[in-house]
Amino acid sequence: MTTRVAVIGATGKMGRLVSSLIEAADDYELVAQLHSTSELSEMLGADVAVDLTVPGVSQKVVDFAVDHGLRVLVGTSGWSQERIDTLSRRVDGLEEAGVVIIPNFSLGSVLATAFAAMAARFYDSIEIVEAHQAGKVDSPSGTAVRTAELMAQARASRGPVVAPHTDQRARGQQVASVPVHSMRLEGLIARQDVVFGGTGETLTVSHNTISPSSYERGIMIALDAAREAVGVTVGLDRLIDLGLGEARDAADPAGPASPADAAAASV
Who has the most CB within 10 Å: 55, 81, 123, 169? Predict the structure, then answer.
């Protein structure tokens, strides 16, 4: 069965990439490409709407799609936990409503975030430095926000990280108590370093995107999930089996020892 797809934000870099992948896939049909002057009604007739717009527009796109019975794949940054919670309450109980929100389509980025969440249980001094191309309109990035939130969940029993001098603007913006520093530079695609400080050592979990082709596999995984989505799903990590829980259980048959371990096992 062919799934009909509308891409909103089709003229941007990600929009063009997603459109080309859909056109090349046998089980998808690209039925609409919306840009900044398009009417949202142009997406009607599709089964799935792919939102690749900007933070100020994304909410309106998703609301329209949900109201008209389309499932939605969101690749736009800027979805805070508060906005996600509001959306979840809205679609709760609607059998035909499903939204998949992906802060980053790169599998390597998802793995780096998972590794960071594991390490967060062992360090109290943690900061994130993220860098993207100069034209990216939001900061911190959606990936940095999600990384900070997942680290906070994993270390819930330890409490907030140690972040001194937060009154100084140069110390970064705090997300889930983690200082995040954002750079927007020409010549970059995306890079994120999560730096952990301990007694006599530092640990850095780093991911560097060197080509947009790194997003292709994740885009197709997310698009496949969006076809049958119910409710709200956030993160590519929810769509793939990272195997981290199984690996820990094999090493420790007793299983997770605390709520923080359980949170990390779910990453």
Answer: 123
Average pLDDT, rounded, for the chain: 90
Half-sphere exposure of 36 (CA within 13 A, CB side): 4
Pairing relationship of beta strands 125-133 and 190-198 according to DSSP bridges: antiparallel
Q: Are residues 111 and 101 in the same domain?
A: no
The domain that contains 36 carries what CATH number? 3.40.50.720
Domain assignment present for residue 18? The answer is: yes
What φ, ψ does residue 229 adopt, rounded to 5°? -65, 140
Give me the number of domains the chain comprises: 2
Q: Is 60 a catalytic residue?
A: no
Tell me which of 13, 60, 68, 136 is the catalytic residue.
Answer: 136
- Are 69 and 136 found together in one domain? no
Instruction: Tell me the two tokens of residue 138.
Output: 């939001």
Q: How far apart are the first and last CA of the chain?
A: 32
The one-letter amino acid code at 174 reads Q
CA atoms of 10 and 20, how far apart (whole Å): 10
Which of 13, 60, 132, 181 is flagged as catalytic?
Answer: 132
Convert the pLDDT of each residue in 73-113 to its tens digit: 999 988 888 899 999 999 998 888 999 999 999 999 999 99
136 catalytic per annotation: yes
Report which of 126, 135, 131, 115 is spatially closest to residue 175, judged by C-alpha positions: 126
41, 40, 97: which is closest to 70 by C-alpha?
97
**Structural domain contains residue 14:** yes
Give 106-142 as a 3 state SS string. CHHHHHHHHHHHHHCCCCCEEEEEEEEECCCCCCCCH
Give per-residue pLDDT as tens, 159-203.
999 999 988 999 999 999 999 999 999 999 999 999 999 999 999
